[in-house]
UniProtKB/TrEMBL annotation, chain A:
UniProt keyword Protein biosynthesis present: yes
Description of how the protein assembles with itself and partners: Component of the eukaryotic translation initiation factor 3 (eIF-3) complex.
Sorted UniProt keywords: Cytoplasm, Initiation factor, Protein biosynthesis
UniProt-annotated location(s): Cytoplasm
Protein name, UniProt field: Eukaryotic translation initiation factor 3 subunit K
Function: Component of the eukaryotic translation initiation factor 3 (eIF-3) complex, which is involved in protein synthesis of a specialized repertoire of mRNAs and, together with other initiation factors, stimulates binding of mRNA and methionyl-tRNAi to the 40S ribosome. The eIF-3 complex specifically targets and initiates translation of a subset of mRNAs involved in cell proliferation.
Family: Belongs to the eIF-3 subunit K family.
Residue ranges of domain PCI in the record: 46-224
Automatic annotation (TrEMBL), chain B:
Protein name in the entry: Eukaryotic translation initiation factor 3 subunit L
Organism: Hohenbuehelia grisea
Keywords from the UniProt entry: Cytoplasm, Initiation factor, Protein biosynthesis
Assembly information from the UniProt record: Component of the eukaryotic translation initiation factor 3 (eIF-3) complex.
Pfam families, alphabetized: Paf67
Bias type Low complexity, positions: 614-626
Polar residues: compositionally biased ranges: 594-606
Family, similarity comment: Belongs to the eIF-3 subunit L family.
Biological role: Component of the eukaryotic translation initiation factor 3 (eIF-3) complex, which is involved in protein synthesis of a specialized repertoire of mRNAs and, together with other initiation factors, stimulates binding of mRNA and methionyl-tRNAi to the 40S ribosome. The eIF-3 complex specifically targets and initiates translation of a subset of mRNAs involved in cell proliferation.
InterPro entries assigned: eIF3l
Length: 241, 626
């Protein structure tokens, strides 16, 4: 999982060269990385390290600053919770000095706290609250101008919930699940089906198949003694005999 | 290794004193005459330019005259050692002499400027660069650098790196590894110090504002990265490390790394630059990139690069901090434990080292980091370190481990104590008077931003991120302590105990599950520090079946083996020692060997049977001493 995180299979060679080489500091490459971000938005792919490379260039070259790109990167990073991508991205955002002029008003200062709030809800597994806020009137701007452009955004957030549910539940009520993924009726059934989960006989509960995280077993960890620990003693015995 | 080195210079420091007295009379005798002649020969016809020159010259002479003779002797001697590439002598001068005379004469003032001592060293430009390196480092560590010091130390660093990188082929200079590390370390420290100082707009004088407006590349992030990357590329250090890992022969490696990389000076500078990059990226808040530049470096105690203790400790400190910011607490703990054990082991050798304080300070901060990680991801790793950490930060640790609201201030306190001194990459708009005046105007943050503008200080920015993570997990310890009491429990009942809403509580359980999983480099198998896979970090496991929580706990069986092994070995040692002791009324022959051989008698017997435990240490020690 982490290996996929550091170099996703979908990453093109050109981007790999940029991410891993010294050329990542060259401001004239920012366009290539930004295009790659737009490709990620359209295709549903995700490449955290490449996006961090954009933010790095912005950090060093204040004149490259493009708030729309930053907002898209931050939104995109939400779906990788509980991995720290959102924090890693925001770590690179330095305060902009006053007087740095843009042609249009800068949307980032007002949206950053909003996205941070959304991230916080996801990281704290407050999925129903996330959907409520995400769908609220105040966030119309975020939805209409940004998330609508991101292919599969809502599904990627549902994946966050799915990961959490899979790890913690063997069985979850349909009703509860519905609030986590913000789906109802036939859509919810289709979603459950897609996860290859099953609805139990009563029809009100969803069975989560066993996976490494929802299998619990009381174990007693026994000490295991490795040969190197005993070399001294064995060699002593050998010398004595 | 460390022990040997230490003994060497401790012994030579005394001899040094005598040597210098001899050198001194010779050197000063010569020089004094030259200077005197120069003054006499000055032509009588004086225009204004020469007048100034003469005045300057006289001022320099006056300054020169004030330098104590031992210091002059020291500088001459130091220069000679550098000319001859005599590493042992350079080391003595660098580690012992410089500090000694600093304490004696320059504890509160600058060393003489390079221009003043230049005649002592025949105006050797390379030595003067090295001298300035020391001069400015002393200013930074003991005094308050002013803006000229900051600009000039940057220029001097540039000259040094320019000489190393852009001479005709690799330079012949050789310097002790410790000094090479200090050069890189200090370069980054001065960069960090400059960035911090630069970000405080309000305390600048008009002169400083003027200079800063035209500072250009001085201490810019790009210049610093440029130096580090140039050293890395010139030395081919990454290729060197990879070739070593592949077990290539010395000839093959020499082929790969080329004329620069074959020289110890470049190889070490290359390696230290990798560590320098790690540090710079951490300071700038880029924790992923920091670990990525370390891709090829293997963290272990065996590498020859661990010889410079300060570098070794710094590496682990910054790596562990990255892991914390990546929410990889088990990896952080493992990294910290390794280095803290190392510091404990080397303590006996390093008590007199001038770096000892610095290493200890870093060590203390790492105990604080350990306490934080341990609270966030409790594990049974290394009780010894855990006990020390709890002893030092008992108050905070108790609060952090308990969770809840009280934990947050404790985390904040330890984070601020233990974190690196973060910097911002960009200067305030010194070159933009309008913007600057907005910053300078008292207490009026720009009215454009609707939300109270986030604080400019990068440390608090990162602290806020960390605390957000911490508060997200603040309920986990409470939940855990409840769950420990049951094997199964209804969700509504648990919610009742906690006085919480059932749905909230179930979501909190998912947080707890999440907190008990982490990405980690299992078994060091990864291809780099960023690799890893998800592991379970908690002994308490649970699962929710609709509304029923089932809980299990993994326990660790009693451990006997370690105890038995340790005591078997100890008994054997005791037995061997007893057998070696002379009998109370020994026969005459035995007594003679015993008396004449002393320690080596013990080593001789054990050396004959090398695999014997415990005794082996004595044996090797004996051989080396002989």
């Amino acid at each position: 999982m982490a290996y996929e995180w550091t170099s996703p299979v979908t990453r093109p060679e050109q981007i790999e060269a940029l991410v891993s080489g010294v050329d990542r500091y060259n401001p004239s490459n920012v366009g290539i990385l930004e295009d790659y971000l737009y490709h990620q938005l359209r295709s549903g792919e995700y490449d955290c390290l490449a996006n961090l490379a954009i933010l790095k260039l912005y950090q060093f070259n204040a004149d490259l600053y493009n708030p729309d790109i930053i907002i898209n990167i931050l939104i995109k990073s939400l779906a990788s919770s509980p991995l720290p991508d959102f924090n890693l991205c925001t770590s690179l955002l330095e305060d902009r000095p006053p007087g740095a002029s843009l042609d249009e008003p800068d949307p980032l200062p007002s949206l950053l706290p909003v996205i941070r709030g959304l991230h916080n809800l996801l990281y704290r597994c407050r999925f129903p609250a996330f959907w409520a806020i995400y769908r609220s009137e105040q966030l119309a701007n975020l939805r209409d101008n940004y998330t609508v452009e991101i292919s599969g955004f809502e599904d990627s957030i549902r994946e966050v919930a799915v990961r959490a549910v899979k790890a913690a539940f063997t069985k979850i009520s349909r009703e509860r699940l519905a609030t986590y993924v913000d789906l109802q009726g036939a859509e919810l059934d289709a979603f459950i089906d897609k996860q290859r989960w099953t609805i139990d006989a009563s029809g009100s509960n969803v069975e989560i198949p066993p996976n490494p995280d929802n299998q619990i077993e009381a174990t007693v960890v026994q000490e295991s003694i490795k040969l190197p620990q005993l070399t001294k003693i064995i060699s002593l015995a050998a010398v004595k005999s | 290794m460390a022990q040997q080195r230490m003994a060497l210079w401790a012994a030579e420091a005394d001899i040094e004193e005598d040597l210098q007295d001899v050198d001194l009379s010779l050197a000063i005798g010569n020089y004094g005459q030259n200077a005197y002649d120069d003054a006499l020969i000055q032509p009588p016809q004086i225009d204004e330019a020469t007048l100034i020159a003469v005045q300057q010259h006289m001022a320099q002479q006056a300054a020169f005259a004030q330098i104590p003779d031992v210091v002059k002797g020291f500088i001459v001697h130091f220069h000679q050692a550098v000319l001859e590439n005599n590493l042992a002598e350079i080391t003595v001068a660098y580690e012992s002499g410089w500090n000694k005379y600093t304490e004696k004469f320059y504890a509160k003032t600058e060393w003489p400027e390079a221009e003043i001592i230049a005649p002592l060293v025949n105006d050797d430009p390379i030595f003067l660069i090295l001298y300035r390196e020391l001069y400015y480092r002393h200013v930074y560590s003991r005094l308050q650098p002013d803006i000229d010091d900051r600009f000039h130390s940057y220029e001097n660093s540039c000259e040094l790196f320019n000489y190393l990188l852009n001479s005709d082929g690799p330079v012949q200079l050789e310097l002790p590894e410790q000094w090479l590390w200090d050069i890189i370390d200090e370069f980054i420290y001065q960069y960090q110090s400059f960035c911090t100082w630069r970000s405080k707009v309000k305390s600048k004088t008009d002169d400083e504002l003027g200079l800063l407006a035209e500072a250009g590349p001085v201490w810019s992030s790009y210049s610093v990265l440029n130096v580090l990357y140039s050293l890395i590329q010139k030395s081919k250090i990454n290729e060197y490390i990879v070739a070593q890992q592949q077990g290539k022969s010395a000839e093959e490696i020499a082929e790969i790394v080329g004329e620069y990389g074959s020289r110890p000076l470049y190889r070490m500078l290359g390696y230290f630059s990798v560590i320098g990059l790690l540090r710079v990226h951490v300071l700038l808040g880029d924790f992923t990139l920091a670990l990525k530049v370390m891709e090829n470096v293997e963290l272990n105690q065996k590498s020859p690069f661990t010889r410079v203790t300060a570098c070794h400790v710094a590496t682990y400190y910054y790596v562990s901090f990255c892991y914390i910011m990546l929410r990889r607490y088990p990896d952080a703990v493992r990294t910290i434990v390794t280095i803290l054990n190392f510091i404990m082991r080397m303590r006996q050798y390093h008590t007199r080292s001038y770096q000892y304080d610095q290493i200890n300070k870093t060590g203390d901060r790492m105990y604080a980091l350990f306490a934080m990680c341990h609270a966030l991801s409790p594990s049974r790793l290394d009780d010894n370190i855990a006990n020390i950490a709890k002893e030092r930060f008992g108050d905070q640790y108790a609060k952090m481990a308990r969770g809840g609201d009280e934990a947050i201030p404790a985390f904040e306190e330890l984070f601020l104590y233990a974190c690196p001194k973060f910097i911002t990459a960009n200067a305030p708009p010194y070159d933009n008077p309008a913007a600057l005046s907005v910053l300078l105007s008292p207490g009026s943050p720009s009215p454009v931003t609707p939300a109270p503008s986030a604080t400019q200080d990068p440390t608090h920015r990162l602290l806020a991120l960390f605390l957000a993570d911490v508060s997200a997990n603040a309920q986990v310890p409470t939940l855990r302590s409840f769950l420990k009491l049951y094997t199964s429990l209804g969700a509504s009942k648990l919610a009742n105990f906690l006085d919480a809403d059932e749905e909230e509580m179930v979501q909190e359980m998912m947080v707890m599950k999440q907190a008990s999983r982490s990405v980690s480099r299992v078994g060091d198998s990864g291809r780099g520090l960023l690799d890893g896979q998800t592991i379970s970090t908690s002994d308490l496991n649970f699962v929710i079946d609709e509304n029923m929580v089932h809980i299990t706990e993994s326990t660790v069986g009693r451990r006997y083996a370690g105890w038995f092994i340790k005591n078997t070995e100890r008994t054997q040692r005791l037995f061997d020692d007893l057998r070696k002791m002379p009998l109370p009324v020994p026969p005459a022959v035995d007594a003679a060997t015993g008396a004449s051989n002393g320690v080596s008698q013990a080593s001789a017997t054990t050396a004959a049977k090398p695999p014997r435990s415990g005794g082996a240490k004595v044996a090797w020690g004996g051989v080396k001493a002989a």
